[in-house]
Specification:
- The protein is an all-alpha fold.
- It folds into two domains: 265 residues, Orthogonal Bundle (MetI-like fold), CATH 1.10.3720; 244 residues, MetI-like fold (Orthogonal Bundle).
- It has a two-stranded antiparallel ribbon with strand order 1-2.
- It is globular.
């Protein structure tokens, strides 16, 4: 009887329809569609909300270009636009040449201590932009130790903004120009030297043309950074209005959301122009590269090396000294009358209602942004680069991933205000919470992380996927067991990049925090407004120390990854 029952059960089970299984292509399509939907929600829709708000009145009615006509007819707002262009142009004119010669010294000389000088130049990346402004206040402000050097001029205005922005944007320009010089073909210079060409002619005919696209990119990046920065003009601008502070005043001070959206759209113009020019120059630059290109190795030259070393000592020393004064000021009891050291300035509860909570909120934001953002960005880049299905859908996802590159943080933050705070949006429950801050920060820094992941994935031979397919292994197994371990250095780079930028960001989150989610960078702004400059410098110092510590941990982990997991790369 038991055998008969077993046979009947087997027949009945064979007759029941089998549960359908999704193919790899269907799974891939669903994942890519999910990626597109995510990017639409966190990037495209907020920008669309910003555009929509700019053509509406205060009551939400459509008014067309009336807000833009009102903006053009307002002398105050036009003056802010002129001021922004002026300080951005001046800061760019100062920063890019200094960054070029600094990068030239690092790549075209045999001076000692290149690694040290490179690290010194990158110091501003690990600090909020406001710290450079606070440092200048300690040095040249109304109570500055070198106030007499101003010769009657006021630091609080265009002078302070230009100098502080030059300090803040210097490492960004240096990274771009140094990369451009590193990619240039050394054979042309070696041939010119063998033919007895003078150094001046080599510089003007070989070195400078080979780096011109890097210089163009650096120019637009610095200009965009300066014209859209909020922190420095807010701290040191005084009564000198710029577009970023105008947008803040329109939205927070006057609750004039349509005009704030108009200012955001105006801020978007230089960033979009810079993005397309940069993309075009990158394509032309890649066409000039040769597979036979070799890096240039400079020969020892005492006169040249000493001159460039002196230049790097001056520039790198000024950067470290400026930020060092701000750190020193955070420990001073009463600047500049009582320079005795104290830790009272680090009792943030005395100057800011949230106390240390804002710092811990920033730590939570940075950690969540690094964990979630790295997973989303790298997985999305893998779906776009390695899965050869649904090309149009993958192209659309790549387009969305590149949008933040052309969107300043302040503009994206305004878009989030109008999108996530809309009454019709079910996602409005997240407004003012840590969730929306994490989403906004990931979206803000998505493009650079995406490009980093794509660069790493492009270096992998397509045979990995071909072999996996021949072995009937699904792509998600290849991703987890092969691709991710090989790309671990790039994954760590992305995580640290997101962590550091989440700690130091100001512009993108200035409109989005709530009572319980105020960040350290926002607390710095409020403490400076209240006159607690020492406490503001102390909070900025804590952020900078945390970011540097994260970078040191990254270097240690990177050494571990290359030393063990990546040992197969070495011969």
């Amino acid at each position: 009887m038991s055998e008969v029952a077993a046979r009947m059960d087997a027949r009945s089970s064979s007759r029941s329809p089998a549960r359908p299984r999704l193919s790899e292509a269907q799974v891939a399509g669903a994942l890519i569609a999910g990626l597109c939907l995510l990017l639409v929600v966190i990037i495209a829709l907020p920008l669309w909300a910003l555009l929509s708000k700019s053509v509406q009145n205060v009551d939400g009615g459509f008014v067309g270009l009336a807000n833009f006509r009102a903006y053009v007819s307002s002398p105050t707002l036009i003056a802010s636009l002129v001021n922004s262009v002026m300080v951005a142009g001046a800061a760019t004119a100062i920063t890019v040449p200094l960054a070029f010669f600094y990068a030239y010294a690092l790549s075209r000389s045999r001076m000692p201590g290149k690694g040290v000088f490179y690290a010194l130049a990158l110091l501003p990346i690990f600090a909020p932009s406001l710290l450079s402004a606070l440092a200048l206040i300690y040095i040249f402000g109304n109570q500055g130790i070198l106030k007499s050097w101003m010769m009657g001029a006021s630091l609080y205005g265009p002078i302070g903004i230009i100098v502080a922005e030059a300090l803040y944007s210097f490492p960004h320009a240096l990274l771009i120009v140094a990369t451009a010089l590193a990619l240039s073909d050394g054979r042309m210079r070696e041939a010119a030297e063998a033919m007895g060409t003078t150094r001046r002619r080599i510089f003007w005919t070989i070195t400078l043309p080979s780096a011109r696209y890097g210089l163009i990119s650096a120019t637009f990046v610095v200009f965009t950074l300066v014209i859209t920065d909020f922190g420095i003009p807010k701290v040191i601008g005084g009564q000198f209005d710029v577009l970023a502070t105008d947008a803040y005043r329109q939205v927070v001070g006057q609750q004039n959301f349509p005009m704030g959206a108009v200012v955001g759209m105006v801020l978007l113009i230089p960033a979009v122009v810079a993005f397309f020019v940069d993309r075009r120059t990158q394509r032309r630059q890649s066409a000039m590269l040769s597979a036979r290109a070799v890096p240039y190795e400079p020969k020892p030259d005492a006169r040249r090396d000493l001159g460039l070393l002196a230049f790097c000592v001056i520039v790198g020393g000024l950067i470290v000294a400026t930020y060092g004064v701000a750190v020193w000021g955070s420990f001073v009891r009463y600047w500049p009358y009582n320079l005795s050291l104290t830790l009272d300035n680090y009792d943030f509860a005395a100057a800011e209602p949230t106390g240390w909570d804002s710092y811990f909120n920033s730590l939570k934001l940075a950690a969540l942004t690094a964990l979630i953002g790295t997973a989303v960005v790298f997985t999305g880049a893998y779906l776009i680069e390695k899965l050869k299905v649904f090309p149009r859908l993958r192209g659309f996802a790549h387009f969305l991933a590149m949008l933040p590159m052309a969107t300043p943080g302040l503009v994206l933050g305004l878009g989030y205000v109008f999108f996530f705070n809309a009454s019709w949006n079910p996602l409005s429950v997240f407004y003012g919470t840590l969730t929306v801050l994490v989403i906004n920060t990931i979206a803000h820094f998505y493009t650079v992380s995406h490009i980093t992941a794509l660069t790493s994935l492009k270096q992998l031979d397509g045979e990995f996927e071909a072999v996996s397919a021949s072995l009937k292994a699904p792509f998600w197994r290849t991703f987890s067991r092969v691709t991710a371990p090989i790309c671990m250095p790039a994954i760590l780079d992305i995580a640290v990049y997101l962590f550091v930028n989440a700690l130091t960001t100001v512009s993108a989150v200035i409109f989005l925090y709530g009572a319980d989610t105020k960040l350290a960078s926002i607390a710095i702004v409020h403490m400076d407004e209240a006159g607690a400059v020492a406490s503001a410098a102390a909070m900025a110092t804590v952020i900078m120390a945390t970011a540097i510590a994260a970078k040191l941990v990254h270097l240690a982990l990177n050494a571990l990854v290359f030393g063990r997991l990546q040992s197969w790369r070495r011969r």
